[in-house]
Every structure is written in C-alpha cells, then in structure tokens.
Amino acid sequence: MKNNRGQALIEFILVFPVFVFLIMAMFDFGNILLNKYQLENDLDYVCNLYESGKENEIISYTSPKKIQVDLQKTEHHVHVTLEKRVKLMTPGLSQVLNSPYRVSVERVLYEE
After folding, report:
1. Is there a contact between 26 and 95 (Cβ–Cβ < 8 Å)?
2. CB–CB of 109/81 below 8 Å?
3. Which residues make Cβ contacts (< 8 Å) with residue 57, sequence separation at least 6?
4. How far is 36 from 25, CA to CA, in rounded Å?
5. Between the CA atoms of 19, 20, 22 and 27, what dihedral angle is there, to the nearest 10 degrees?
6. How far apart are CA 69 and CA 32, in angstroms?
7. Contact 82/62 with Cβ under 8 angstroms?
8. What is the rounded end-to-end Cα distance, in angstroms, of the chain?
9. Which of 5, 8, 71, 75 makes a 20 to 30 Å CA pair with 97?
10. Cα–Cα distance for residue pair 56/64, rounded to 1 Å
11. Alpha carbon 45 to chain centroid distance?
12. What is the pLDDT of residues 23-52, one digit of tens each?
C-alpha cells in the first residue's frame, strides 16, 4: 500500500496561495461593486438636492462620505459626477488596478 501524504501536501502548498488570492480578489471586486451601488444611491440624492435648489447641502452630504462632487453646468444641462476611492486589499490586484481604485458615477440633468 502506497502512502500519498507527501504528494497531497505538495499539491496543497502549490494550490493554496492561488486559492487565497482568488478569495481576496472576490472580496475586492465585491467591495468595488458595493461602493458603486452606494454611489448610485448617493447620486440620486445629490440630483434631488440640486433640482430642489439646495446646492449648498450637497457638499455637507458628500464630505463625510469622502465623495468628490463635480457639477459642470452648461446652458441647457448639468453634468453631475460623483467619485470615491476604494482601497484594495489584494496585493497583486492593487498593483494591477492602481489602488486606491476610483469608482465614479455620472448623470446629466436637463434644465428647462
């Protein structure tokens, strides 16, 4: 009867770092998606504030959340962009995606 314990240990040692990297990368991508969905909700609120004429409240709403706001006004529309930086925890992925990763959402509001 053969003993395959050594072979199983070597296979485990070779596969384990790849498995850990994939798990950490899934958490990072989940965190990016979560922040994007939260920014979409914040964008809805910021657009409602702008349309209500409460532009001064936009900064007080976004500052504690560390969200950058860009309002570009033209003659007939306003381009609203929100951006947030997300720190990645996966070592290799943070170099590929340039940590902190920038998540941004935008919307165009048409004025009459």
Report:
1. no
2. no
3. 49
4. 17
5. 150
6. 18
7. yes
8. 84
9. 71
10. 14
11. 18
12. 999 999 999 999 999 999 999 999 999 999
What is the amino acid identity at position 3?
A: N
CA distances from 95 to 19, 33, 35, 83, 91 (A): 19, 19, 20, 20, 7
Q: Quote the tokens at residue 96.
A: 């590929």
Beta carbons within 10 angstroms of residue 38's beta carbon: 16
Q: Count of residues for the chain?
A: 112
Q: DSSP secondary structure string, 14-65? A: HHHHHHHHHHHHHHHHHHHHHHHHHHHHHHHHHHHHHHTT-HHHHHHHHTTT
**Domain regions of the chain by residue span:** 5-110
What the block records as the tokens of 84 is 């947030």
Encoding tokens for residue 97?
Answer: 């995606």
